[in-house]
Amino acid sequence: MFRHLVEQQTIWLAPGELIVGEKGPAPKATPTYPELCCHTLQDLDLLNTRDKIPFAVSAEARALYEGEIIPFWRGRAIRDQLFDTMTEEWKAAYGAGVFTEFMEQRAPGHTVLDDKIYRKGLRGFANDIRAGLATIEGTPGAEIAARRAELEAMLICAEALVGFAQRHAARARELAASETEPGGEPSC
């Protein structure tokens, strides 16, 4: 699913932008994750009107939430299932603000935990994952099968992110070519 999302996401690059990677198809556009925590119409109104870092919610998106997304995900979202298992004491502490639920506040991938990604790169991670897969190839057992599945999923994600970066690079080349005058010099 992650690979599908990054293969389909619209690539946005602003003129002169040097650091890329919008969450959505344009600045201030972001996907939601109703499978994690399904926003209410009031949540969408708040996102649309808050003073600091608002996100525009179109009438079409609001109608889609009201007619399809909320009815489908109500009671099915991970947050709903999690809260169904919590004790009343925990829910009271949550309601008082003692605990917060990270996924209510941020999209997945909101943080980078350390600098390995900058030192090693995603291709380096993919190579490490392939090496890990090679060490367990042909080994039977349920524990090994679970590890193999985990490594295969990690490899799919690493390769998907490389492809996402390549899509940004291709879009940057397209934009650069369109800004070039017939003599080969940039028009800006």
> How many independent structural domains?
2
Low-confidence stretches: none
Estimate the global geometry from the Cα principal axes. Answer: flat
Mean pLDDT over all positions: 86
Characterize the largest beta sheet: strand count, sense, and whether it forms a barrel.
Answer: none
Indicate the percent of residues in helices: 55-70%
The tally of helices reads 8
Strand content: under 5%
SSE series: HHHHHHHH
Number of strands: 0
- Taking Cα atoms only, what radius of gyration do you get, to the nearest Å? 21 Å
User: Which class best fits the helix and strand makeup?
Assistant: mainly alpha
Q: How many angstroms separate the termini?
A: 39 Å
Give a nutshell description of this structure.
It contains eight helices and no strands.
Describe the overall structure.
By secondary structure, the chain is mostly helical. It has two domains: 17-109, no CATH class; 112-188, no CATH class. Helix content is 58%, strand content 0%. The chain has eight helices and no strands. It has helices at residues 2-8, 41-49, 59-73, 78-85, 88-95, 102-105, 116-136, 142-178. The two termini are 39 Å apart. The mean pLDDT is 86.
